[in-house]
Amino acid sequence: MSIRVFRSLSEAAQSQLPSAVTIGNFDGVHRGHQELFRRLCTEGAINEWEPTVLTFDPHPAAVLAPERAPRLMSTLDERLRWMNQTGIRQAVVLPFTTEFAAQTPEEFVKRVLQEALRARLVIVGDNFRFGRKQSGNVGTLAQLGAGAGFATEIVQGVRYRGVAVSSTEIRTRIERGQVAMAARLLTRPYGLTGRVVTGHGVGKKETVPTLNLDTMAEVLPAVGVYVTHVHDVDSGRIWPAVSNIGFRPTFGGDRLSIESYLLEPPGEAPPQRIRVDCLHRLREERLFEDAAALKVQILRDVRRAQNYHRRLAKWVG
């Protein structure tokens, strides 16, 4: 069953059931978000309430404080797909505007939660704020909810191996190159998606041939060499790979490039759109004295990546 997506309050009001609601941006739909969604779905199933995510596009910070708006790890479509996989059946995606932000907490609860969504339960984190100038907090929500017919449940953050799971923490890990830990916090590898573009041709002639990715991703792993999986977005085929994210200093590069060397043949029809999933960082990018020295290092990287993929395949199997 696919998730239903409503783009306005009038559309959302057409839902047949009362709802159990959570509110947020949910960038990355990480381990903590997933736990919250499971709780929402459990309560929905018990009480015959529709598990509903209320989210916004664009991110509220992009409207209220653009200079502080976070770089996002995921697109709206990706977030909706991952929500669907956790059992969420309904998402309300509201345009976030200055007019919407100007609502008082009382107006938000009445117009959005009570009238449009017919909320019976609202689950939020303990740092939840809402309403004009973020004047409402979890205490405000609980007080207003009691008069509007819904209960308020406050959930504590999730910790994994001593780390507090949050979108901010995961962004930091990715940008430091700690992609293996980021994957554990996300419950999936962090991926970069985009078109395959023509490179400079140097790799094919002097080192090894690669697929060059043009991506619009806002969060990029630290410059370096990574063990990766390359997915053909159109066919679904997956190749083990080793990828370089960097500036190609050996060849005097001054623009960031993302190049992936497939460890298995690409076939007769190379992919046109790919996702590069970052599994493990092998090393920093370095300047080599010439292309021959770089090729020697690349072959070492390939052997290490092959060993990693063999261990991964054995563990998964």
Layout of strands and helices, then pairs:
Elements: E1 4-6, H1 9-12, E2 19-23, H2 31-47, E3 50-57, H3 60-64, H4 76-86, E4 90-95, H5 98-101, H6 105-116, E5 119-125, H7 138-148, E6 151-155, E7 159-160, E8 163-164, H8 167-175, H9 179-186, E9 190-197, H10 202-206, E10 211-215, E11 224-232, E12 238-246, E13 257-262, E14 273-283, H11 291-316
Parallel strand pairs: 1-4, 2-3, 2-5, 3-4, 5-6
Antiparallel strand pairs: 7-8, 9-10, 9-14, 10-13, 11-12, 11-14, 12-13
Keywords:
single chain; 317 residues; alpha/beta; Rossmann fold; Elongation Factor Tu (Ef-tu), domain 3; 2 domains; six-stranded parallel beta sheet; elongated
Please explain how this structure is put together:
Mean pLDDT is 92; it is low at 203-207. The strands form three sheets. This protein has a six-stranded parallel sheet, with helices on both faces. A six-stranded antiparallel β-barrel has the order 9-10-13-12-11-14. It contains eleven helices and 14 strands. Strand 2 (19-23), helix 2 (31-47) and strand 3 (50-57) form a beta-alpha-beta unit. Helix 6 crosses helix 7 (138-148) and helix 8 (167-175) runs antiparallel to helix 9 (179-186). The chain has helices at 9-12, 31-47, 60-64, 76-86, 98-101, 105-116, 138-148, 167-175, 179-186, 202-206, 291-316, and strands at 4-6, 19-23, 50-57, 90-95, 119-125, 151-155, 159-160, 163-164, 190-197, 211-215, 224-232, 238-246, 257-262, 273-283.
